[in-house]
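Hey, sorry to bother you again with one of my protein questions. There's a protein on my desk that I can't quite get my head around. No rush at all, and the record is pasted right below.
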Amino acid sequence: MKSTAVEQKTFLLLLVGVTLAFGWILFPYYGAIFWAAILAMLFRPVFRWLVKRFKGRANLAALCTLCLVLVIVILPTAFITASLVQEGSAIYQKLQSGEINIGRYVQQIFDHVPSWVMGLMERFGVGDMGALQAKLMAALNEGSRNLATSAINFGQNTFDFLVGFAIMLYLLFFLIRDGRDVSLMIRDAIPLEERHKHKLLGKFTTVIRATVKGNIAVAVAQGAIGGITFFFLGIHGAVLWGVLMALLSLLPAIGAGLVWGPVAIYFLATGAVAKALVLVFVGVFVIGLVDNILRPLLVGKDTKLPDYIVLISTIGGMALFGLNGFVIGPVIAAMFISTWDIFASSRDDARMNPPDAVTLEPPPADPSTTRR
């Protein structure tokens, strides 16, 4: 008995050790593996349809599905990324040459500040406009340079990107073809009750599909509308600001407004009232309408998570995991809620259905003592 217990503990320790070691090996390319699994999950219905059309030829169906992923997802993303890097480099060069002078824009805003606003700011102890202007200009210049240099650095890390991209494509083919077998193997290996596994894995799949499809649809719509609006208003770097709005729109309710809001304030402060009104109208009634209509339909309806949970988990996920966090954060939040719900329901079941009480029965009578 003691030998068996020691062997079990040793095996569990070995299992944990090799699992952590394998995760450590895969960690440098976890992003490629993560998105390969997500894309395989999203395009699984297409693969099943193609298998039926090709009369069971899974390899051909997986190859066609992979080509479809390239055309629909990867090529447009690569085109937008190349445009972003090019435009970020151009803006950085204009900042270096002085063609774009953020300090001049800040000065224009302060020149149009009303006197009553100046008096109010002096009352609250921020009346030193020179020092305040210097701090704002330094912060804006630093932020703009960081944004531009980040785009340049992203373009320079070509080798790592190509390696990760090749790993993702290679793995994506096999996950599309063998994804069902892999998921069943993982499901069988999880040491939980069948009903709990069904609930958790179902929630996991639902949240990933809803988060990716919903958030990406909202981000693309808001980024495209914002970028086109900036282009027609004559704002430099329309593609760059459109992509930034798309990325920030991953944050529910507050995302894209962090870009078009300050620009609208600048237009209003410098006397370009018509441009400010156009931008506010588009931001509130078009971009905001996309967020208020599409996001609840595509994300909240399926995940059944409150908006504040989605917001906090998205921000926290992106702070920890970067861009991948807009999926990882809500998934962890959904699994957290589901796990505690299972725990609470299990305790309720235990209270409602207690184990049967042990009844003490009298011992059977001795036949030799019974009366005849």
